[in-house]
Amino acid sequence: MTPDELAVMDNSKCILQVQGVRPFFSDKYDITRHPRYRHLSDADPRNTFDVASYLKRRLKVKAEDEFEVYEADVGAE
Asked: Of 37, 17, 16, which is closest to residue 26 (Cα–Cα)?
């Protein structure tokens, strides 16, 4: 397709490109009809995953927690 043909393509269609298969036309999927749509951030902004917040989390160790400690030699031979 030429760029001008892509620009006027029907909005209910899409071009899928899957590894090992030639690109093909398909109808767009209405995600609001998916059974788990309510879990998406589109349905509820509280479902948005905050990467920065997740990476800032630290393990909270309590005094009564027990751990096994192992020593490993990772030096190059």
From this structure: 16
Distances (CA, A) of 25 to 1, 2, 36: 11, 15, 25
**Which tokens sit at 36?**
């788990």
Strands (DSSP E) contained in 7-70 are 13-16, 24-27
Q: Can you give the pTM of this predicted structure?
A: 0.47
How large is the greatest C-alpha to C-alpha distance in the chain, in angstroms?
68
Contact indicator for 14, 23 with CB cutoff of 8 Å: no
Instruction: Identify the DSSP state of 39.
Output: G
Partner residues linked to 1 by β-bridges: none
Among 31, 25, 4, 30, which residue's Cα sits nearest to residue 13? 25
Task: Flag whether pLDDT at 77 surpasses 70.
Answer: no
